[in-house]
Structure formats: C-alpha cells, structure tokens
C-alpha cells in the first residue's frame, strides 16, 4: 500500500503543556535523577538509538519484529520483509477513523486498540472473550506513547452487529468480542464489535488494532529469553499448577491424576520465563485492587518486553532473530487501517519503550453500579476526550492520579 499523503486535521500539541506532563511523570522515563551535589548536566539530551524492535513494541503492545535501527535509514522494503509473517485483517470495521478524522494520514495522533485473547485448543474459536483491552494513544509529535487499560468487567452498551446476528444489549465489555465472533463472525467480527463498543462508550475512533493471542505471546517472551518482572503482592495463580515440577493449566493438570502444587508468584523482582510472566500478568483474584492491579501488571509486562528487546545480544543472534520472527507471526493479528504496516512502523521511529506512559481508568479505584459492574467515571471519560483532542499530556498534568505507579 502506498504512503498516504493527506494531512490529518488534529489538535495542536502545546510544547509547554507537554513539558509539564513530562515533568509530572519522571518515573516512567529512563535514566532517573542524579544524587544531590552532582554537577548539573547540559539540558540537551541525546536520544538513545533504540532498535526498531522496541519502537514497534509500542505500536502493538508487544514485540512484533526484529531488525536493527539501521533499517530506518534504508528502504521500507526492509521493514516489510521483517514484518511479513504477521497476519493482517480488518479488525476495526465501522470504528476506524474517517477521512475527516485523519484516517488517511499518519501525520497526526495515532490511536490503536490492543486486545488480548485466551484461545486454547480445547475451546471453540467463537467462544472467546477479550481478557485484556488496552487503548494505545500516540500524540501527533510521535515521541511518546500512552497505554490506557479498560477493565474487562466494565458495563457497556454493545451495539447491534449483523455479521454475527447479535441484536445488541448491555453486558460486560469483554463480552463484545464473544458476541461479534459467534455465528461465523470470527475474531475479525469480535474485534470489530469491541472497537465499535469502545467508540460508542468513549468517542475514540481508531487507526489500527491488534489481537494478541496469549499462547503465541508466551512464545515471543520465550524467544526474548526472560523478562524482569516485579511482583508487588504475592498471589496464587488461578490458572496454573505444578505437576512433577512442570507448570500446567489446571484443567490439564487435573487430568494427569497426579499431585498438584499451586503456582505462587512471590513478592519481589526477578527474571521470569514466558509462562510465568504471562501467568502473573493475568491474575486478578487475590489482588488487593483486582482488575486494576492486573492492568498494571499487564502494562508492566509490555514495558519489560520493550526493555528486554533493547539489550545487547538480543538482535545480533541470527537464531534468536528467526525465533522472534516466527513467534511474532503466531502471536498477532493486525489491522493498520488505511496505512501499510511498514509505513506505520516507520512513523513510530521516534517512540521507544522507555517512553511508555501507563494510565489507569478511574484512578485505579472501583467505580461500580447497582449491577455490581464497573463503570467509567466522569474523570475517565474526560481522559478519553483528551485522547480525542490529542491533549492527553495536559490532562495528565492536571490529573496525576490517573498515572500508574508501576515502573
């Protein structure tokens, strides 16, 4: 697909407000402060030459491809070759940005919908809900990225969807994917109905979307080796147990008839293998703040992968590169709207994993209704309006409680 040249009409980015927002979130950036008494450093800061892999991590919420930053100096054909194994489908439907909203250009702000699904072989393909729902916002400056997690138990008005025969109704928002996937709608239909549901709830239209299969996601982490995860509170896994010292899904472990030992994620920082990092990021039962703590853990995993991808040796090993490319092809399904994937990747070259800012809906506090379901607070809806206006940096500066405290 050729590069689109129509300019997107969008709200301007105010340097002073962006600077204030950056000052409000020092813990999200690399480097940290110097001890008192050290001489001040020059104000000008050289941007680190992060590999392209880490930049694409921001685009889909995880590592997608493997190639060095030198590819940016070459043709987009190099990027296209590296991303060729990733399936692309129509995941947005009517929730994609219109031309008036800038849907034909990548020059303005970019909004993507990231959906994590748990698809196991023993489950029907059309009986899957979206366990993770994340809105990725990149401002028009293309040098920062924000992740906003929507609680899976949020009550939502799900629109009518003719593709699957769904008549419309009120349910938990994660049910939108299931309702769209049934009766032949498939994962494309599931993603489309989810995107339409979020657009109806928040007003945000999307430039692209990604479905992340948790099973394939594990393979991507394994290809990276391990990731460093900090467990903030001990939690017993609701999904996995050890059998003969090997981790297994509880349902599979029961079938063995052997003794089972619970998987427990103990407090502290450590390097985790793919299965452990993924399992920890999916826990919500037993956590103090339930799904809100899980949101932070999932965002922490995404950032940990971005950091891991920048380490020396990860991209210089031909065997590891091949493993990463193969794993990415199995883990993701993408929709890049009216732009090609290489164009989108090239546009994201100014974004790095260290510039991921994690945000919490409702300030990380339960905001339920009479049905016992979560709802979006007025402050959260205001945050999504700031996304639409491309003024999220300014919003965060005046509403710091929406920031995730997890590094």
Features:
407 residues; alpha+beta; Aminopeptidase; 7-stranded mixed β-sheet; 3-stranded antiparallel β-sheet; 13 helices; 33% helix; 18% strand; globular; disordered N terminus; transmembrane; membrane; transmembrane helix
Number of helices in the DSSP assignment: 13
Number of strands: 14
Give the proportion of residues in helices.
25-40%
* CATH 4th-level superfamily: LCP protein
Main sheet: strands, sense, barrel: 7 strands, mixed
Q: What is the alpha-carbon Rg in Å?
A: 21 Å
Strand order of the largest sheet: 1-13-7-2-3-4-14
CATH class, anyone?
A: Alpha Beta
- CATH architectural label: 3-Layer(aba) Sandwich
CATH topology: Aminopeptidase
Transmembrane segments: 52-73
InterPro entries: LytR/CpsA/Psr_CW_biosynth (IPR050922), LytR_CpsA_psr (IPR004474)
Biased composition (Low complexity): 10-27
Region (Disordered): 1-50
Describe this structure in words.
It is a single chain. With 407 residues, the chain is α+β, with helices and mostly antiparallel strands. The protein has a single domain (51-232, 267-402), classed as LCP protein (Aminopeptidase), CATH 3.40.630. Helix content is 33%, strand content 18%. The strands form four sheets. Strands 1-13-7-2-3-4-14 form a seven-stranded mixed sheet, with helices on both faces. Strands 10-9-11 form a three-stranded antiparallel sheet, sandwiched between helices. α3 crosses α11 and α6 packs antiparallel against α10 (318-331). The model is unreliable at 1-75 (pLDDT under 50).
